[in-house]
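Why this split exists: single-chain examples teach little about how molecules sit against one another. For that reason, every record in the complexes split bundles all components of an assembly together and asks for one structure covering all of them. Below is a record exactly as it appears in the raw files.
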Amino acid sequence: MQLEQSAAEAGVSDFMQKIEQAIGAMHEERQSKSIAGGKVEGGLAEINDLENLAVIGDLHGDSKSLFQILSEISYDRFLSNPKNKLVFLGDYVDRGSDSVGVMYAVCHLKGTCPDSVVLMRGNHEAPAEFPFSSHKLPYEIEERFSGCGKEVYQKLLLMFKLLTLATVVRQNLLMVHGGLPTEDAAIATFRESIANAQENHVRSRVLEELLWNDPRQIETQPGWEMSRRGLGRHFGSGISRRWLQAFGTKAILRGHEPCEGFRLDHDNILMTLFSCKEAYPKFKAAYLMLNAEQLDGINDARDLSRYVRYPELP
Ligand SMILES: [Mn+2]
């Protein structure tokens, strides 16, 4: 694959250019408040008019999984139709060996096919004010582009601010990276709280919760508990139900936790999808591929699991 080779060989100026093109595309989307078939308000994308949907979960620097999935969905043809959407759930970097290659590729896809690609934000693309331990991206960049690491990383931080925080498709599917925010005020103002989460992240927990939360079985009030991750919270099925009701959607799709390709929680209204293999050899990589008719037919996340595919990895 040409893209795979370019990602492996790119020099610093080529890489910087890809990041700038992705920034330009995402900036334009926020200015015009639109993407083909839908609307964009800050960190929230809502897409109604759609033909096919593909979703890729956490990659964590696993460019082999990424290029295998891209080849299986025939990405050139898939992305040439602006009514098709390839959505990434975030966590492109860290843990695996090729964060730079993955970032190069996803920036290229967003830069060249802005209407068919949605890049969501993971906790590994968090603002610099969220210190967390496993962030080796800055070192990997410096290793590859010695002497230019700082400059490249600063540019990536600018790009991270523009990544999508929640994507709603056909009023059926609500996608986030980690989980749903637990506070009543965030749920009451659901569209605005997500749209403005990046801008409000110092005084509100919404961004942190979208990026870090995990679904758990929690029966007791207030329906959430602190997370052992140090950031974010565990949320119960009551919180999931309230968000589904707010958006009028039927299922929640998120990444953030390794699993056997996918996992169902909260009485099958929530699916976790994971797409990387390299850093988690004991788990499975998977992705999702379905058309609008199939999406319209789902009643919960269990129905979505029919459309989970496993990339043929060595
Ligand atoms: Mn994550």
